[in-house]
Design brief:
This protein is mostly helical. The protein starts with a helix and ends with a helix. It is built from seven helices and no strands. The protein has a single domain (about 1-100), classed as 434 Repressor (Amino-terminal Domain) (Orthogonal Bundle).
């Protein structure tokens, strides 16, 4: 799968970029994907451009439409990257384990 993605999206990709690359790989327009998934074209565009978060619901829906695993969208580039919010939670839990 990575080879196919690299052909359409070389290097590191965001979930939205992956969606766009796979959509184009399959020759779908945004309107086509709207018809397939029921997700409005404007929302699809916002997801592709990173203005709307890739949720589990979206990942599962796009995976069904594009013939891939949902984890591809949730963990682009095969990595789980912790954002600042998760790092803070991890830090607080670590401190509480030591003092609790």
């Amino acid at each position: 799968m990575r080879a196919v993605l690299d052909e359409h999206l070389p290097g590191e990709s965001t979930p939205g970029e992956l969606l766009r690359g796979l959509r184009k790989r399959d020759g779908f327009t945004l309107k086509d994907l709207e018809e397939i998934t029921g997700i409005k074209e404007s929302n699809l565009s916002a997801i592709e451009n990173g203005h709307v978060e890739m949720t589990q619901y979206y990942a599962e829906t796009f995976a069904a439409a594009l013939g891939v695993q949902p984890t591809l969208f949730l963990y682009p580039n095969g990595k789980f990257a912790k954002d600042d919010r998760l790092l803070e939670i991890e830090h607080k839990a670590k401190l509480m384990r030591r003092h609790g």
